[in-house]
Each structure stands twice: as C-alpha cells, then as structure tokens.
Amino acid sequence: MCGIVGYVGHQSALDVVLDGLRRLEYRGYDSAGVAVVTGEDLAVERKAGRLQNLETLLDEVGRDNFAGTVGMGHTRWATHGAPIDRNSHPHRDTTNRVAVVHNGIIENFLALRSELEGLGVEMASDTDTETVAHLVSFAYNEGDTKGDFVASVRKVVNRLEGAFTLVFTNADEPDTVVAARRNSPLVVGVGEDEYFVASDVAAFIAHTKQAVELGQDQMVVLTRSGYQVTDFAGEPAEAKPFTVNWDLSAAEKGGHEYFMLKEIEEQPEALANTLRGHFANGRIVLDEQRLSDQDLRDVDKVFVIACGSAYHSGLVAKYAIEHWTRLPVEVELASEFRYRDPVLDRDTLVVAVSQSGETADTLEAVRHARAQKARVLAVCNTNGAQIPRESDAVLYTHAGPEIGVASTKAFLAQIAANYLVGLALAQARGTKYPDEVAREFHELEAMPEAVQRVLGTIDQVKALGRELADSKAVLFLGRHVGYPVALEGALKLKELAYMHAEGFAAGELKHGPIALIEENLPVVVVMPSPKGRAVLHSKLVSNISEIQARGARTIVIAEEGDETVRPFADHLIEIPAVPTLLQPLISTIPLQVLAAEIATARGYDVDKPRNLAKSVTVE
Ligand code: M6R
C-alpha cells in the first residue's frame, strides 16, 4: 500500500529512485512521483497512473533537470483523494522547499488541515499528506525548531495520529533525507557511502543486501556519512540490522511474461524452503519461539486470523490442526476478529498469517489478541515485519519475494507453515506419537515433487482458460479441504479477471446456489481422493451429476486414475494422488493458472489488478 524510496549517495538519485519504484510498484500503482535535490532547489514531478506515465513525463520535461544525488520517490495506492496528478506524491509546502512522501493514513488530518487553513495555507491537493509538508515547513521556518530540519520533522510526527511512513527532503538541507515510521514499514539500506530508505528491501537490493529494520515510532536521518536512528523524542534508538537472504534475480521476472507465472513455477522451491530445517533430532522446531513447550501444552483453543488468501490457508489448516491436536480451531477474518469480542485468554493460541506481515487488519487483530493475554504466533513471509515483531513466536515462510498482487507461492507456503504449527502443537501435547509427527512431516517434505508434477501439466489448463475467457461467471465447488481451495480459486478469478466467481461447499449447493446453474456455466469441482475420502468422493460425484444435468460445463480436478468421475467431467484435470490433508497444495495450482490465463486472455495486467495493492496497510 504505497511504495516509498529515499536515497542519499553518489549515484544519480533519479535513476536509483526510479529503479526502486519499479520494484515497489506492486504496492500501489495509482500514481507515481519523484523529488530530487538539485543544488539548492528541489525538482519534483508526479503523474497519475502507472510509473510508466511518470517516466514518459520525465522524458518530456528532460531528465537533466533532475541531476542530483539525494532524492525520493513514491508509488501510490490512493486513500485520501482521487488518483489524479495533484493528489500524487511528493507533496510540497507553499515555498516548494520541503517535500514529503507518505504511506499510511493520518487520522487527525482534518484538524491539522483546518489549523493550516486558519493560518492562510491554501491546500493544493485533497490528501492528508500535504498537511505534513506545510507543518514541517512552518516548524523549520519559525519557533523553537527554526533552521533544524530533523527537529522540525520530529516535532510534526509527534503530532500525527494513525499510520505513517514519511520521508522528507528539504532544499535547504541538500545532503539529508529524514524518515519516520509508525504502523507502516520502513527499512534502511546500508551501502558504501550511500544509504537508502524504502518500504521494502526490494527497492535497494540491486545496491546492497545490508539492511536495518526500523522499529515502531522511530526516525532515521540519512547523510552520505551514515545514518542515525532515534525515537520520536530524539533519543538514540536500537534498530535491528539484517542481511537480505535473496538476490536481485528473485525480484525480477527471469524471462517470464509476468511475475505471477514465475511465482507459480517457484512453488516447489517455496514449499521446500519453508519446510527446511524445521525437523531436527526427531522434533518439529519453529523459528523464533518465545513460547515454551509448556505454553503449547497449555493451549486449549486455537484461532487463525488472516485476510484473503492467507485466511484461506487458515481454513485449510483447521482440518489438519483439529485432526492432529484435538484442539478446537476457529478461523476468522482478521478484519472481523476484534469487533466481535472473541473469547480469548492466556491459553488461547492465535496464529496470525500474513505474507507481508504488515496487513493492518491482521496487525490490529494481533494487538487485540495480545491485549487479551492470548499468545500470538505469526506465520509470515517478510523478515522483521511488524506482525512478527509484535508476536510471541514466529514461523517464517521462505517463499521469497512475492511481487504479483495475487498470492500464489506464499499461499502454499502458508499452508505448509500452518501445518508445522499443528504438528508442533501435537508434539508438545502428545496427541501424536513422535513417529507419527515424523511421518506427517516427511509426507509434507514429499510435496514439492508433487507440485512440480502438476506444473508439468499446466498447458492443458492454460488452453482451457482461453476457452473460458468470455464466460460471465465461474463457480467453484469443494468439500472438506477442497472447500477452502474452491474459495481460493474464486478469489483468484475475481481479483485477476474481474469476473463473477464464487466458491461453495458442494453440500450447500442444494440449499440455494444450485439456482445459479444455467446452460454452459463453468463450474470447477475440486474432488477429494476416491480412496482417502471415499464417502465424500461419492457425495461429490452426485453433486456434479446434479449440476451437469442442469447444463453446467463441469471442470473437474481429480486424482489420477479416478475413473468414476470421468463421465461427469466435461474437462478433467488430473493431479497426483497425495494424502487427503495435503491435496490443497496441488489442487490449488490449476486454479491459479486458470485465473491468470483467463485474465491474460481478457487483456488484463495479471501482476497489477485494478484497485488492488499487494500490502493492505489500511483497515
Ligand atoms: O500480506 P497478507 O498475507 O496479510 O495479505 C492478505 C491478503 O491481502 C492477500 O492474501 C490477498 O487476498 C491476495 N491478493 C490474494 O491473492
């Protein structure tokens, strides 16, 4: 949700910033803008739409006007104010000396705005961000912080409420970039005589792998001679250094048409990396476990909280965790969780699942759970993000950077990680013998190979996707663990192909949704194994025959050799036989490919679907 990059060094700031914005565009693409300190002035350009529009504008106005080695940029996901030129960042004060870029929402902006209007300031945009530029300018030009850029920023951020990452440049302080964060991400990149700030390490990974994670309510001042981290009171503060463990190629398309396809193909590796190292000396081990085995033994209820695909990964995991631990598991949309007064206490384990680790709904749910004394275990794909920082234990999914807005490899990795949590609970509580835990783990370990086999058959799914591109709607049906897979398939199609898509528990069909079935309506059915879940299988065969009789075009994902389902499938997609609880790790893949292919055939940008952003840092 908005990408930010700032730079102080010896290279062309414009080039570094634009390159960073290209890698951050997944965070928002409603508009883009840059500011570069050029001698004693500030060169600023902004443009609505994709980054490409800004690049074209820069070519028109002349990139020579942006000569300088200090600068910053922004790619926007609009919150306050429509996605038009004048609402694009950077925003400036009335003298055009101070500029700011922002990710987040300033909740007290109306009060700040009327205060500024009372001082005679005419706002040039509809944004909350612009108020900050004016406030810093006032602080810098008068009063007790006059002439002190850093103190001026500090004074203003202390007045702000809500969520913000802010980066400032000031033409009167040409060698300095100042940044501050609360509830929105910001990392510092440490190069040789050059320093970066960005929403995500992807922005500077081409220049350095050395990074520093800024904590809550911290500020950082970058100059060519170093960086200083303080708290909002101006006291020196600790920030955690880390080395990025992936390289530039992971953040590039590597010859693929779009990131999502690359990420779909990376799923075997994402799964293997997520499992690696989590079974040692005959035991499941988590990553940063600040929970003891006794804490895990004391757990009497599990909540999984998450949004979107991460929520679906929780729905899948519920079947496994309940089966292995005999603990009740509730899976809840993070955005609903804290508004319904859930029953939580210190024996409740809350598993917060988030690829980005910065989803505001999930973060607030985590805070609510901790305030109620529940233990929180984060499952996260982003090292050092806010959700794991605020949790009692962390299990990282090692899916690598996911750039496509639609979650693919992160989703599979989340299922695997949630399963590890289930096995760790079963182990601590003794509901599974050690050899049973080991067997489940080894079955999981065999899944990357099964995923690879499914990937070898996706051309058939692509061809089907092109055939379905003109459909008005698609329904998805499943039972047991196939039900959340159906929900995930529908979500993928909605977000990528802008098509009406719904996932149902197949048994519910007869209670209403069957009325939607009409001639030629594509219905995708996720079949359980005929051997593993014979009863469910035969029920689903009946469901398919019911919808086929009413004219639906049936697309059936079924285990290889499942002959009973063949007569009912207008299109049969075969997947390898795997243990029932693990089937979602492979049955999801054709649905990802189907959605991407339909979206491509309809002419849409698969990596950047309309109205969406990868990280949703507003509630
Ligand atoms: O970063 P998170 O895992 O917390 O994100 C949660 C959802 O916003 C995310 O899974 C979203 O639903 C995906 N775009 C779906 O493909």
Automatic annotation (TrEMBL):
- What GO molecular function terms would the record report? carbohydrate derivative binding; glutamine-fructose-6-phosphate transaminase (isomerizing) activity
Q: Which GO terms describe its cellular component?
A: cytosol
InterPro entries in the record: GATase_2_dom, GFAT, GFAT_N, GlmS/AgaS_SIS, GlmS/FrlB_SIS, Ntn_hydrolases_N, SIS_dom, SIS_dom_sf
Keywords associated with the record: Aminotransferase, Cytoplasm, Glutamine amidotransferase, Repeat, Transferase
Which SUPFAM superfamilies does the entry mention? Answer: N-terminal nucleophile aminohydrolases (Ntn hydrolases) (SSF56235), SIS domain (SSF53697)
- Subcellular location field: Cytoplasm
Top enzyme class, one word, equals: transferase
Specify whether Transferase is a keyword of the entry: yes
In the Enzyme Commission scheme, what number(s) does this protein have? Answer: 2.6.1.16
Cited CDD domains:
GFAT, SIS_GlmS_GlmD_1, SIS_GlmS_GlmD_2
The entry describes its oligomerization and partners as:
Homodimer.
Stated role: Catalyzes the first step in hexosamine metabolism, converting fructose-6P into glucosamine-6P using glutamine as a nitrogen source.
Cite the HAMAP family for this sequence: GlmS
Name of the protein in question: Glutamine--fructose-6-phosphate aminotransferase [isomerizing]
Q: Which organism is it from?
A: Lentzea albida
Query: Which gene name belongs to this protein?
Result: glmS
